[in-house]
Amino acid sequence: MSVQVLVLKESAAGEKRVAATPETVKKLAAAGAQVAVESGAGLGAGITDQAYLDAGAQLAAADSSGSADLVLCVQPPPAEAIGTLRQGATLVGVLHPQADQARAAALRSRGIRAFPLERLPRTTRAQAMDVLSSQAGMAGYKAVLIAAQLAPRFFPMLTTAAGTIRPSKVLIVGAGVAGLQAIATARRLGAQVEGFDVRPETREQIESLGGKFLDLGVSAAGEGGYARQLTDDERAEQQRRLADHLRGIDVVVCTAAVPGRPAPKIVTAAMVAGMKPGSVIVDLAAETGGNCELTRPGETVEEGGVVIDGPLNLASMGAVHASEMYARNVYNFVALLLKDGVLSFDWNDELVAKTAWPEPAPEPATAAG
Question: What is the pTM of this model?
């Protein structure tokens, strides 16, 4: 019997993305799966139920979650929804199981084999499955558009009959995927752009996008492409130099993150107080506490004439393309689990084993000879 795949309609407030598109439904069907989609799951991303039907999917019945072998989602379902899944089913999405005790308990009680895609190893082979990168790209793009809307000035230089308007000075804090996309977007809008990251290896990437690398004399090069935590002395020196520089900046977009930890506090209240009235800070790291001390997640506030915005779930604001990328990421991962139309888990595959939650126990060693 073919694998029964269910695509959930997202229940989180404001979430418009979907975990499968007609394109990936066709690919799943070609891999031997039978796909059902909850009615209305794709509407936020511009996909009608009929589009799924035309791609070979079925519309899921109200009680179909209890019969699905493989369930695909974007954000984690609530604990009560997990409780309706079939015992021993497989769940794939951005699940953060350890962030919510009720969610983790529900997964364990139903014997759900969970694959939280945020745990996927960041390797070259995994790039086509990397949902964090694909969604961060959309978030970085949207963050700059929000900044441009909030800023009381033009981004590009303009020569007008009333004189020349100088370009806005934009600083992007953090040069991961979101930061690099933010740099590219701000440059397209005509701003004078700088990028700051404590990892010195990002200089070439920032400059390749037309930005200027802001060197504050502090390096936090770490392992796996991530930054290490700074020492107290390093942080103090970084903040002193950054505070001086921010006095001449019009727009700051913060994107810095440390995996598994609250967002590092980079822009202090004192730095904000030293910025020009009319300046704007958009803190893309708001979901994990924010890079700015004054950020209020989900709110736009003003402090001393400086506007500070803490947007949440920016990727959902670009749900059409974000869903296309996310669905392809999900399919590329699920393809590792589908063998001849049935679910099969190769625990020798690093991507499968290290993404699984909890990680599978190592097989006992056998005696030689």
Answer: 0.90
